[in-house]
Amino acid sequence: MLSAIVTSATAALVVVCVVAIAKSRWLYLVVPKLYFETPLSKGHVVTMTLANGGFRTEEDVHVTLKKTCTYELLASSKSGTSLAQGVLRIPRISRFEKVTALILAEGKTFEHSDIESVESKDTTGKVVEKPEQVSNLRDQAMMWPILALLLGGPFIVGTLVGKYEGMWAWDYVVKATESFTPSKQLAGFRTEVGGVQGGARATKLIKSGEVTHRIKEIVRRGDILEFRVVFMNRSAGFVLMSVDSKGPASAKGPLGYDDRRIADLFVGPGLEAEGTLKAFMPESWKPQTVVLDFRAHTADDMAWYTSTLNFE
Q: Fold for domain 27-140?
């Protein structure tokens, strides 16, 4: 009887906490301190990242900038983004989504104080200087609900596992993880690079080798392949690089869309950048092939090409 009362009370507390977290909104604008010189003009390229750390979609997101500079939108990771009369607008940002915009600011050196406000249809956002502050602020706001979940969770999990599985919760976890295998690094695979398509400038950069990539490492963890990719930009301008993994077993695996891609990674002139993506590929599956779709966005246009990896 006492156990039932405690479990019911804890369950009610957990529901209240979950609802509170789900309704909370965390909209942030991350403005790094680094500004990039550009050969396009005497201005600076400013990187702005809008992050929705909440569980609900933010609509009609807009960033109002002071008229101390003139602004031009160079590129964005979200379609529909616009910049007019000093107002950067994004139609919607899904939960946990980040949208990066590259803005050319002319007239004076852009400062954080030039950002007047960050708002959406339902909330007012905050401006932070570092990406780490987004998670830090959100973690502080969620501290008490999470504490309640940590205290109440074991009661509920233990009750459900005991009722439906007939064993202790810890024994159930051990059983569920018995199939995990050690990781191993793969080598000796064959690579076939497909033709480059797209805009003239981006296509020329890729074909000339000014914009390229290399596979730094491939690690197998059970049925999951993990790729570490290094992007190299030897051109005079910035490039946004993206890559998606595809394979015959992709649709059957446990990986989400974001696990299988690297999205809009900024690579400055003469610099390198590294990212990680995954692919579902059991060793028993035939053929042992993964296709990586690469895309390169420049200030003018974009181009794409494929790299087919064969592990047989």
A: Immunoglobulin-like (2.60.40)
